[in-house]
Each structure stands twice: as structure tokens, then as C-alpha cells.
Amino acid sequence: MGKRIDPDPVPTGKTGQLTMKITFLGTGTSQGVPLIAHPATGGCDLGDSRNWRTRTSAHLKIADLSLQIDAAPEFRLQCIQNEIDWIDFFFLTHGHADHIMGMDDLRRFIDLRGGEALPVYSTQEGLDRVSTIFPYAIRPKPEFKGYPAFALNLMPESLELPGCQVDYVALPHGRFEVMGLVFTETESGKRIAYYTDCKRLTPRAIELAKGADLVVLDALRPMSHPTHMTVHEATEAAELLGAKQTWFTHMTYIIDHEMDNAKLPNTVSFAYDGLTVSI
Ligand SMILES: [Zn+2]
Ligand SMILES: [Zn+2]
Fold first, then answer.
1. What separation in Å is there between the alpha carbon of 87 and the centre of ligand 1?
2. From 5, 55, 266, 268, which residue has the greatest number of CB atoms within 10 Å?
3. From ligand 2's centre to the CA of 107, what distance in Å?
4. Whether pTM exceeds 0.85
């Protein structure tokens, strides 16, 4: 059963160069897959490497920018395995542990930037959590060489970066509001929407992502959950948005890539760790 979406199709940008690229560093729910002391019985086939899921985060290349979304607890290993060697801007979708706990390892990128603080964008809740967990990193330069330094910025509704615009929409996630992000490449107008950790899409989120070139959606598991979309809810959202391709993320051990992927519409697929998609 092959995948229905070509994960790396021929680039179609004006210049013929790859213009937008997303790498799924991690695609697992907050406990990862497999769980500790749990053989995934009745769930996914652990003989398939696509079912081994570190916590959810992603890296985007847009124009000349390297953009990092969230830093999972496995962030250091994710960077090594996926050869991430630079970050220009960091986006924290929200302050849950599975998205924030790898941020100390951003220190290496601050070192590579010559000790310049890394711009971090998030909600007020997200920034408050960064300040609480990493107080030693809130400074324009590292305290000592090799230490982290974050320049905290409240995410505006629309952020203009060189060659790229980033629109932000709040998504409901229980007691949290999560940053939904839509990246538009200035030259081509291509759009990638990244909506992780949400119970549903808001009218504004639908407006921003409708007809996008690529959409990423939270799709936890088949059974209902108070703060995440189920696979069925995410599939409905994907059909509503009508993106050229939709990739699901933040899955539990119950999702088996091969078996459950076959049940999804043709333009929708479960992502997996290490997957890179270029548009
Ligand atoms: Zn999460
Ligand atoms: Zn969360």
C-alpha cells in the first residue's frame, strides 16, 4: 500500500528552486510512541519505523529562512537526525511540556549565531512559561558562551519576515490557546498552515488555511478527546480546508501508519518522524 501523496514532488516555484520545505521532526503525542512500559498491544506495528514517534515539532525552510516550530523533549536528537544546522526564528505554539522542554538545546544555535539571542515568538502564556522554566536564558547575550539566550516577542497577528509572512490565529486547546500558524512565501504566494494541538478550527483559522498548498493538523486518535481533534474530526477539517495536501500529526500509539493511512482521503496522510515535504 503506497502513499497517495508524493512526499517530495518536483518543485514548482518561479525560479525552479525549492521554495518551501517542511520537515516533521516529531509527530507523536505528549507521551511519545511507544509509551514507557507499554508494548503498544492492539495499537501500531512497532516493526514499522513510521510508528515510532517522538514529540511533535517541525522545521520549515522558506525563502532563505530556517524557522523552528516548538522544541520537543527529543529536540537535540531530532536536530542531529534531520541535520538541522541553523535557526533564524523560533515559534512556540504553547507552553505544554511536550512542546517547550527541548528549548534549552536551542543553545547550540545561539552559539552558531555568535551569541546573538534567538527571537522567540509565542502567546503571553507561552512566553510566561519560557520565562518560568528558562529564566537564565531571557537575556540579549548568553551568560556564558554556549548558554542559551532568548529574545521574547509576543506573536503579532501578522509577522513580516524577509521573504515570508506569518499569520497567527488562536486555536482552542482546553485551558490553553495554541498558536495556529500560516506561513506565506512572499514571492510565490504559497501557503503552509500548521495547526497542532487543537480541539477544533475557528472561522478565522479556516479562512487563513482554506485552499493552502499544505496543511498540518492535529489528529490524536480515533476516540474522542477533550483538547485534541480525533482522526475523524481532523479528516472533516481537512476536507473543509481543501488543501492540496494535508498531513496529520500528534498521534498516539493507536494509529498504525500503514493500516490507518489507507482509510484516509487521497490528499490526506499521517506524517511521520523525519518526513520532509517540499512544495
Ligand atoms: Zn502537544
Ligand atoms: Zn498541548
1. 21
2. 55
3. 23
4. yes
